[in-house]
Design brief:
8 helices; iron-sulfur; 4 iron, 4 sulfur cluster binding; cytoplasm; alpha/beta; 6 strands; binds iron/sulfur cluster; globular
């Protein structure tokens, strides 16, 4: 049987590891300042779903750089409440550079003319409506900030604060926060909730693929319920 040779880490992976080591245990604002002002100035954006927990990281970023580009993927399949929440929250926090990303109309016309691709092939739907629009927007940036947390489980349990995947660095400033810290931050800063949180949605994506969860269930248990799919692909494609 052929041996698989171990590959050496790239220079970018080495840098990400060094940053993760340097900022291990640092608070989120320190990590954000380091990333935005020192390590990747002018070459970094926040990607936000304006979902159930998003207000925390958006509020933190607003303290450091309210004009930071914030990328919101408007899939065309959001609950009606989400774009309203996105507008109101951006205004309340003073974020001045929120950009709405859309799937390409000509691609939607060919690949999802009836709007039901999510039912037939959710991976293809996520690629069309999320992955490609984000890939296109991220060509302008070498680094993006995410709100992923280890307690979300699945592929997120071992996430570091800094990583390098594909062509990009990723910064995860609140990766080690637990649900209690998230709750406490909402309360301390009187942050508005996405309206669906009170209806049993601890994680909010597109309406066809998001369901409420029972008390005690995994936060993301309502996403693509009944299928093996756990991620939309924006974090798992290279
Ligand atoms: S979450 Fe569902 S509706 Fe949204 S892009 Fe993915 S498959 Fe399509």
């Amino acid at each position: 049987m052929a041996q698989i040779e171990p590959t050496s880490p790239s220079a970018e992976e080495v840098r990400a590891k060094a940053l993760a080591d340097r900022y291990r245990g640092a608070d989120a604002v320190t990590v954000l300042r380091a990333a935005i002002e020192e390590e990747f100035p002018g070459d970094i954006a926040l990607v936000s779903s304006f979902g159930a927990e998003s207000a925390v990281l958006l509020h933190l970023v607003a303290q450091v750089a309210p004009d930071l580009p914030v990328l919101f993927i408007d899939t065309g399949k959001h609950f009606a409440q989400t774009p309203i929440y996105r507008r109101n929250l951006a205004k309340k926090l003073g974020l001045t550079n929120v950009r709405d990303l859309h799937p390409a109309a000509d691609e939607v016309a060919v690949e999802d003319p009836d709007g039901d691709l999510w039912r037939r092939d959710p991976d293809a739907c996520c690629t069309l409506r999320k992955v490609r629009p984000l890939d296109s927007a991220l060509r302008d940036f070498g680094t993006w900030i995410t709100g992923r947390k280890q307690f979300h489980g699945g592929q997120r349990v071992d996430l570091p604060t800094f990583e390098h995947k594909g062509d990009h660095f990723k910064v995860n400033p609140i990766v080690s926060w637990g649900p209690d810290e998230v709750e406490a931050y909402f309360a301390a800063h009187d942050l508005p909730r996405h309206p669906l949180v009170d209806q049993g949605f601890p994680s909010i994506g597109c309406w066809p693929c998001t369901h409420p969860v029972a008390t005690g269930d995994d936060n993301r248990a309502g996403r693509w319920r009944g299928s093996a799919k756990t991620e939309c692909g924006i974090h798992t494609r290279l």
